[in-house]
Amino acid sequence: MQQGEGSEAQVTWEDQQNINKFGRLNNRFHELEDEIKVAKETNENFEDASNELILSDEDVVRFQIGEVFAHVPREDVECRLEKMKEDASKALERLEEEKKSVLAQMAVLKKILYGKFKDSINLEED
């Protein structure tokens, strides 16, 4: 703001709380974007593993459990892989829902803060 305009609004305790909350939500939003990216990669990896298992003609396959590979019957691996894919998909959906919720809360706070402070506050990322 340039000198001489004199249109600065007084920042109340409630305003400061809203600004802090917006900052926390913005941080969570970025964390969620990273987590969603990882979850999508995990889903793709499970899908790739499932496709490789379909192409495999072995009755016993090597399955990684932690840091160890174990020989596991193909049917068991198929069941485990399907369960892992379902869990990963549910986790991704949960993250997407939380992201929507965070964005909605941020929009409400933006409206409140821009309504009071107009051009005196910048809540946009550049």
Automatic annotation (TrEMBL):
GO molecular function, one term: unfolded protein binding
Keywords: Chaperone, Coiled coil
Coiled-coil ranges per UniProt: 22-112
Pfam family, one: Prefoldin_2
InterPro entries tied to this protein: PFD_beta-like, PFDN4
GO cellular component: cytoplasm; prefoldin complex
One of the GO biological process terms: protein folding
Taxonomic superkingdom: Eukaryota
Family from the record: Belongs to the prefoldin subunit beta family.
Function: Binds specifically to cytosolic chaperonin (c-CPN) and transfers target proteins to it. Binds to nascent polypeptide chain and promotes folding in an environment in which there are many competing pathways for nonnative proteins.
Subunit annotation: Heterohexamer of two PFD-alpha type and four PFD-beta type subunits.
Protein name as catalogued: Prefoldin subunit 4
